[in-house]
Amino acid sequence: MSPSAATASTPRSDWTREEIAALYDLPLPDLMLKALEVRRDNWPAGRIQKSQLLSIKTGGCPEDCGYCSQSAHFQTGLSASKLMEVEAVVAEAKKAKANGADRFCMGAAWRSLKDRDMPAVCAMISAVKAEGLETCVTLGMLEDGQAERLKEAGLDYYNHNLDTSREYYGKVTSTRTYDDRLQTIARVRNAGVNVCAGGILGMGEGRADRVGLIHELSKLTPHPESVTINALVPIEGTPLGGSTPIDAVELARAIATARIVMPASWVRLSAGRENMSEEGQALCLAAGANSIFVGDRLLTTDNPEASEDEALLETLGLEWGPRTDKPGAAL
Ligand code: SAM
Ligand code: DTB
Ligand code: SF4
Fold it and tell me: Tens of pLDDT along 277-289?
């Protein structure tokens, strides 16, 4: 075992909500210091992974998630489209790779994955994997046996978010429950696919809900390999379109707390960077985020231009770097 692996923090799944709240509420410099210690002990210094997203099936979703541009319940001006052809997806994956991304995440505006779409989705996963990219999909709820088929096709990660605390969840979505989400996450885990799970800040929730979200994630055993932290991208026409934007310091607190509580997880600063200042993003990266989405689109909304992201990393003295399989071992 390398010396750095020996000092790596062992993930705990018995954090109490109070312990997590106490971390979250620390004076910012003390919280950041603890997060940086965890980062130093577990992760290569100064490396940020480039991920890229693609919406493979856009809009017309039967769910009523109050934040989402793609729900058929709200008038957001988005036009729905069918599942993309495999060739078109591969072309986008090639472009992402040429832009330096090493992870490619495909999202579909579905309530759940239908078996009739399985062959096309599996073909996309296999083809993207064959390009040498890490694969991630987010396709809604899964039934028994579906995650196994995705894994056989070459899937590395399945993204399925808890979004917020259990108590606040009903204020955001009514067409499914928190336990539905946990059940799909368990199916992903049982199939041996890496779990990517996280949530959204800035939906009118309080700090107790942000702590509750991190607590729910920390109870998963093992922790999700990937923890995605989104700032709400406000969408006109949705119930949450007029929400007060989350403060960058509050977002950094959530990232730092997740970094400490789930030391071996990839923490991703995901949606919302387009509306953040360079200083705000700097704080979130300094708080211990390992990855960002690059490319000028997320799924349906804008993301910073490549040149802005290059400038950001240059300013911060950070480098792009690929995923390392064993946190702690690559220091
Ligand atoms: N339909 C699938 C599902 O909901 O699991 C997959 C696609 S969905 C767009 C993936 C995730 O994106 C959601 O779980 C949510 O956390 C995040 N998301 C969607 N709209 C967002 C927005 N306006 N701002 C921030 N995050 C958002
Ligand atoms: C996640 O947690 N964030 C990404 C990914 N998983 C699929 C999605 C962000 C979506 C932002 C809004 C949009 O572009 O539609
Ligand atoms: Fe549908 Fe996913 Fe959007 Fe919810 S978040 S409305 S499930 S696409």
Answer: 999 999 999 999 9
